[in-house]
Amino acid sequence: MNNVTLIGMPGCGKSTLGVLLAKAMLYQFVDTDLLIQEKAGAPLRQILCEQGGDAFSVLENQVISSLCTDKTVIATGGSAVYCEEAMRHLKQMSRVVYIHISYEEMERRVGDYSSRGIVLREGMNLRGMYEERLPLYRAAADMEFTWKEQSAYEAAAQIAKLLRI
Q1: Which of 164, 5, 162 has its CA nearest to residue 98?
Q2: Most exposed: 2, 47, 74, 82, by fewest CB within 10 Å?
Q3: Closest listed residue to residue 121, CA positions, set 48, 53, 24, 69
C-alpha cells in the first residue's frame, strides 16, 4: 500500500496537511473534492444545492471508487465516510489516517457552514453531524492523529513519522 488517505471532519485540515505530507513523503497529492467539482463542472455547494445530498454522495462514491494512484496522499471530503464502496476501495489501496479535531475547533474553523459544501442529512445541524461521523471515521481509520496546537508543518511531520513506523 503506497498511498495514504486522510479522512476527517470538515475543516480538520485534510487538504492542508495532505499537501505538506505529500511533500514530506515525496508523494503526489489528490483532493477528491476537487475531482468531484471537476467531474460535475460545479462547486460542491452548487452540486449540493441543485442536486441534493444523495446525488452528491453517488458522485462522491463514483469519483473515489475510480481512483487509481500510487505514492499519493489522498485528501477526501468529510462526507466520504458515508460512501461504503469508496471507503472499501481506499482501505484496499492506502493507509487511512483520521485527522481528529474537537467539535469546538471544527466549529471555529468552518464558521458559517451554509456557505461551504458540507453534506448534512435532513434536519441535522453541525453538532449532530460531528457526533454521527465521529465513530465512522474511527472505524474506517488505520490510525488516528489528533491535531491540537501544532503548526501544519509540525502536524504533517508527525503524521509522516507515524506512517513510517
Answers
A1: 5
A2: 2
A3: 53
E-strand ranges in 10-163 read 28-31, 72-75, 94-100, 143-146
Element holding 5 (H helix, E strand) = strand 3-8
Can you tell me the distance from the alpha carbon of 109 to that of 122, in angstroms, rounded to the nearest whole number?
23
- What is the separation, in whole angstroms, between the first and last Cα of the chain? 14
Residue 161 has pLDDT above 90, yes or no: yes
The span from the CA of 91 to the CA of 86, in Å, is 9
Q: Are 90 and 96 in contact (CB under 8 A)?
A: yes
d(CA 8, CA 100) in angstroms, rounded, equals: 6
H/E element, 114: none
**Distance between CA atoms of 117 and 81, rounded to whole angstroms?**
15
